[in-house]
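subagent[fold] <- orchestrator: predict structure for attached chain, return tokens only, no commentary.
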Amino acid sequence: MCKMQMTSRERVERIINFQVPDRIAFNFWMDRRRMAELDAKYGADFRINHYDADVVESFVLVEYPHGRYESANGTSWLAEPLFTSYDQVCDIVLPDPNSSDIYSLLKEDLAKYKSKAVVCDFPNVLSVLESMRPQAELYMDMFTYPDELKKLCNKLSDFMAAVAENVCKLDITALYVMDDCACNKGLLISPATLREFILPHWKKVIDAAHTYNKPVFFHSDGNLEEIWDIFACELNVRMLNPLQPNLQDVSVFKRKYHGQTGIYGGIETGILHIMSPDHIREHVRNLFEKAGKGGGLIMSTHDIDYSITNEQLDTFVSAIKSCVY
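subagent[fold] -> orchestrator:
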């Protein structure tokens, strides 16, 4: 048993290096309306200041050109694309990657939360492209306008790599690359198409982080089992999120990649809000027993449902903190 009390940063650094910490580290995300309610109830940054979450996800302040969005009931969607023809792409102007404004929030969080593990959330090309053009059209573009799309992807990822390099000069714990490339049934595009159009741009940013010896976390919703090897063996991703347990077997992932790629997630957010307190405790304990041995597990969620109660959330966090080594 590890009896030494650790700071959050020490705890996370041990976990992502596949060493045993004092207890499991955690973070969580929720429906943004519910987060706003809890910020009002407990104060700003309630996950950190009230629940003592170990991971702080900060951001770079990049305002990418995007289409017009509409919002309702906590969800936003692209209502009007940024461009309808690739003839218009040359008009897209990206900001200066060396502008100090881009890094102001990240630097503020690093100064504020010195004992926490601060990771920088970093959307990649798919995320940005889908804010410019509808997803279905974007995927068709891979076949109808492949050269034009590749040119735009290179423009974006060159900028992203420059920003990532500046980020990784700072004292972050990890760079957290994000691109949704799967749904519940599997990948949104074939592995071959992913390799041709998207993988080089992930790699460009991830290589920038590795140049500065920064570990990389990666987020994609959905069933990623078909490309686990790409994340672990080709991209050298340190932690994969969220690895939804209703879609993928965390025990298999743990057995196959322990010591190489760990789990930043593993919580079944789709039903957390309808679980009894005992069921929540059982769920957390089962994940700990399946994937916690020898480090490599940070319990996290994607978005917990709006209807989760304070009691359920309190039980969830308390159950995680009870997972000691």
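orchestrator: received. Logging for downstream: The longest helix spans residues 146-168. The chain has one domain: 8-321.
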